[in-house]
Structure formats: structure tokens, C-alpha cells
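Support request, please re-run this one:
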Amino acid sequence: MARPRFTRHRGAPAARKTRFAGEALPPVGVVDVVEKDTDGDLFVRLVKAATESPSIRLAPGADETRAGAPGLGDRLLVRFEALENGDREARLIKRLGQSAHRILGVVRKARRETRVEPVDRRSRESLLLNEVEARDLRDGDLVLAQIGGAADRPHGPKRGKVLEVVGREDDPRAASLVAIHTHGIPTGFSDAVEAESLAAEAPTLKARTDLRDLPLITIDPVDARDHDDAVYAEPDAEATNPGGWVAWVAIADVAAYVRAGSALDREAREKGNSVYFPDRVEPMLPERLSAGLCSLRQGEARACMAVRMVFDSAGRKLSHAFVRGLMRSAAKLSYEQAQAAIDGETDEATTHLLEPVLRPLWAAYAVLKAGRDRRSPLDIESVERRILMNPDGGVAAITPRKALDAHKLIEEFMIQANVSSAETLEQRRTSLIYRVHDAPSAEKLQSLADFLATLGLPWTKGEPARTDRFNRLLDQTRGGPHGEIVNEVVLRTQMQAIYSSENIGHFGLNLDRYAHFTSPIRRYADLIVHRALIRALGLGDDGLSDSDIAHLKDTAEHITVAERRAMAAERDATDRYVAAFLEDKVGATFDGRITGVTRFGLFVRLTETGADGLVPVSSLGDDYFIHDDQAHALVGERTGVRWRLGRLVSVRLREATPITGGLLLEMLSEPEAADKVGPKPRLGLRARARPGRRPGPPGRRR
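Re-run finished. Output below.
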């Protein structure tokens, strides 16, 4: 059995390492400049990594002249490159977001001074304002401030200057506002973009295939504001394909309105995607298009790009063909409506659709599912939660989203349409942007094998990553005592999907080629694929331009960063809304599960809300706790007791801080005794958890 790896909870700093041992580096990533050494070299760290990442040297070079020399605190887009000695270095592509010396914070007024306290819980930097700066500010104002000078005393706060008042801390909608400013989410539209959207005209049948008699329907979340995909299915009438099905997927024809090189196009590319918060949406396109002419509204003629796919009785795709059409949605249904109708509870909207539309859709899905099961994509379970808002912007409730067959049906139809897009463009030798997902790295697979060994579960080291192998492991443990933790660790073993102009396949879906085609209202990648299809198939003069093709690599990198930015902003806003919801429940007890084990404490996900909170290691008892990262556990050196990943526990909520999204928890459960978990780990690197002492802020929450 491999020797466990241990790390120190607190103590002397370890020597810097630039080798990324815990998880493989992405080709391109967003980093913060976190350190400057005595030689003037800068070191960066990934903004969002699955584990705490080391600092990596930023290579100096000519790029800095073009992009502007970075400094401490800057957020950068970099490309990671391997060195001959096995280390990695980061090469600057461009600077991102706000200046290194700006912070978003809350004004705190005391009798003798006024400060700006940062909303980012990772930051310890507060700024001191002079009397003139503070005169018109109120306690609780949300402000964008700039570092304006040195501290008055060696260890005192730096001077600051307020650039803008952006809101109030007690505004129920402050959570999304903070996330927007913190992550630099582009908001609003220029006058030129608004003018172009207002000039857009309703579509006509000219040069389009008439699909208005095809009873395509939209199936979306109940609160969806835009509808960019519609589906229909019918049995294949060809005698040579008994038991086969014809499946249609129609997608809003955004390329007809957003032309390459236009103001609409430039701003859509810059945004990269729409960003969804519990209380608002920052759309990629103006409402006139996103919720109007490009939304497949029931009963209204809409321009579309559609694909007709033919499947045999075993779910194998026999053929497909794309058309540029004019459609009219026969119905707008929610997932719950469609599922209820299939389950025998029709309503006024679904009664007349059940036999001619819904049952054929489900029958076609059964065939497609057989093909999916044979393909064996990754079957990792995840529970999504929905935040329900009050009219005044507060959180009314947090509820789990039910996983319905209606969701899976739409997902599989969209996957097949996306595959068809990539296949067509490859056959036509047309450039495109792929959605790619690399297989787990050797380091990640080694870590998984080491962890499974602590549970007595076999995993052949050196065996190449395969989705069916992961699925067998998940099926073997699902429903058992280790099911949820194995599911979590397998999820963490996976790489992140990105956009790329070069194809490496999609590991998670177990597909050789895959491109996003189905959501051009909210993703720029899909708009590029639409334009590529228009050019490849001769469907109009508004296809992929030569300039689009020349910049595909840069576009793929840019929209990958925009996607990461949106995900981080959405996650942070959700954390803040959840903290606001729990603020009046401080002192209450909750059931939860340990979902993160670090040297500074345990992260516990509350069962009821899905919220993540920190139990500091300093509160776990008077013992030295060793972080065993192989077993994902904190182990008491003296007592041998253990806190391990995946364990069900009971905790008390000690603090909930809405402005930062932080939850501080107190452990109520007892640790696992030494005699239940085997021998204690070897002595060595250790840290003492002293009651009453709290650790510094963690680098990330999950």
C-alpha cells in the first residue's frame, strides 16, 4: 500500500514548488498575481482550482509590453508551458478585470475612522479613508475603492480612495451586484448594439425551409425567459428502418441577426455567454433579441437552424441533415408539465399534445437512451438546488431540483444535435470551435487509486481512464456507505471542459467529436458553430467570416475564460444568497456531510440547503491534526481520531456573513475512534488545533 502523504496545518512556510502535483494545469487559465520575490519575479495562482494550487512563476517577456506590465493583485489570462526540468511557468496573454489596486468593499464607520472592508473573504486588505472621502458615505455602502497611498504606520491599513458607490450592503439584491463587480462581468449594451437590435426585423420564408406545420415544442425551466431550442419526433416511415425514429431539433437562428463584425457581434464575443443569478440575468444579447426575435415563442414564426436526425431501433444515428428554416412553436411547456403529462396528469396545455407529440418524443428518447447506455458516458450524480426569490429580492426558499426524464430527454436530443454539427463541419472541412474534455491526468488517477485503497476498493494503477470503468465503480458503491464520497472524488478526478479550435474529443460524454450548437442566444460558441454550418452548407451570406476563422483559437480561449468567469460569479452570488437566507438561523443545528478536508479545517455541505460552511481545525479539539491527503482525512496525532471526507455529521451554525457568503460552523458530532479506522499515520508534519484560535481565510470554499 502506498505511503500516505501528509501536510502541515500551520507552521513554517514550505519551499516554493511550481510543479502542479495535485491536479493537471489547463492549457490556458485565469490567475491572480500573488507574490513578488526579491529578484522581482512574479508568481501566480489559479483563481479557481479543484484543490489548493501552488504558485507558479510568471515568465517575463515581450508579451508584457503589449499587454501592460502586470503587478501584485492583477488578474491575468495566461498560457501554461512545461520547462525542461519538469516545472511549469505561466506566459501572459492579457490582463483581465479590474486593476490590481482596486477592491470592492463595504464602508465601516467608527467614531474615529472610516474603512472599506473587502467583500472577498480571501482578502485581508482594508483601506482607510480620510475625512473628506468619508463625509458623504454611509455605513454599509458598497463601494469600489482604489489603494491610494501607504499606511500611516508600518502595520496599519493603507489609504484608499472611493471611485464609485455601487449599492448598499442591506439591499436584498446585493449578492448578484457584488458578484458582477468582483468578477468583472460585462453589463448592459452600448447605444450601437441597442440600435442594431431595434432595427432587426421579423423573419420571412425567403430562402428558408417551411417548418411551420411541424409541431415542434419547447421544454424549458418554468421560469425561462428565452427559448432557443425546440424538439419533435416521429417514427421513421422508411421500410428499411423498422423501429427507427426521426428526431428534429430546431434552434433559434441568431446568426441571422448577429452578423460578423457588427457591434452586436463584438459585444456578444466580449461577454462570451449570458450569466444567470437567482434574481437577474446578464444576457449576451439585448432583450429585443434574446427574449424576442430569437426566442422560439409559442405560435409565432421564428427563424431557425434545424437538424433532422434518423436513428435505428438500437439508437444508432443513421443520417442527419441541416436546414435553415422558418418554424412556429406548437407549445411552450415546462419540464414539470411535460413529465406530468407522460405520468398521466395532463393539463389544458398538454391534453391535446400527449398522443401526437409527447408520447412519440418519449418513445424516441427510449431509443436514443439505448444508444447512450451503450456509449456509457460518465454517470456522476449531482444535486442542484434552486433559490426561490421573494418579490422584494430576498430568498424565500432553497429547494432541490428534481431530476426528471424530461430533463434527460432534452439533454440527449441536444447532445445528438451537437454531435451532428461537429460531424457535418468536419466532413465539409470547415473550421469550428469544439467543446472538448480531456481524460483525467495520471496524477489525478493516482490520487483516486490511493484514496480508493483506503476504502478497500480496487483500482488498477496504470489502467487508462475509461468512462465505463468509472461507471462500474460508481454503480458498485452507489447506495452504500461510501457511495456519495466516491461519487464526489470521481467528480474531482475529472478535468474541466473547455472550448478549443483543435479536437481532442469529449471524455465525459465518450464522444470523438462534439461542438455546441444548441444555445446561440446565451453562448457565443454556438453562434460560431451556426455561422460555420451556414458557410459549409451554402445557407446564406452571413456565415463564418474569414476574420472569424483567423481568430478561432483566440475566440476559443476567450470564451473559455468568460465561461469560467460566469461560473465563478454565479457560484459566489449563490453563496451570498444562501448566507443571507441562513443569517437568522445562527445557533441552529443542521445535518450535513464533510465534502472537503484541508489543513485548515473541514468543509461541510448542509443537507437541507446544499450550503457549504467551514469547521476550523482549531475548533476540533486539543490535538495535533495531520492532514492525510491520500485518505482525505484529518487525523489526530495523539488520539488517532479521524475526520474523513464523506462522513455524515451534525453541526451548529456559528456565523453567516451575507456580504462575503461565508458560513462558520461548529462540529457537534464525535470523530471516528482510532480503533475503527486502523493504525494512526506516522508522525511527522503536524499542527496543533488550539481551541479558540481561528485560521486565516481559505483560498477557496470548495
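The mean pLDDT is 86. The chain has five domains: 6-96, 102-182, 191-436+501-573, 442-494, 586-689.
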